[in-house]
Write a structure and sequence with these properties.
The chain is mostly helical and 65 residues long. Helix content is 82%, strand content 0%. Helix 1 runs antiparallel to helix 3 (41-64).
Length: 65
């Protein structure tokens, strides 16, 4: 359970951090044809990054004990 939570936190944080590079994401989304969603990405990705960082910190705290 502890390692699973840690993996979830690490993977989620990395995915959210990569997605926060909006210029890269804008190019990728426009290539696929769904660039209309770029306007609300910051409203979703920044809180998702914060949630995954908290999950990562909780997993590291549990592992430390």
């Amino acid at each position: 359970m502890k390692d699973r939570l840690l993996v979830t936190g690490v993977v989620g944080t990395l995915v959210a951090a990569v997605c926060c590079f909006t210029p890269l994401l804008a190019v990728l989304l426009s290539a696929v044809g769904v660039s209309a969603v770029i306007g609300w990405l910051d409203w979703v990705l920044i809180p998702a990054l914060a949630v995954f960082v908290v999950i990562l910190l909780v997993a590291l705290a549990r592992r430390h004990r």
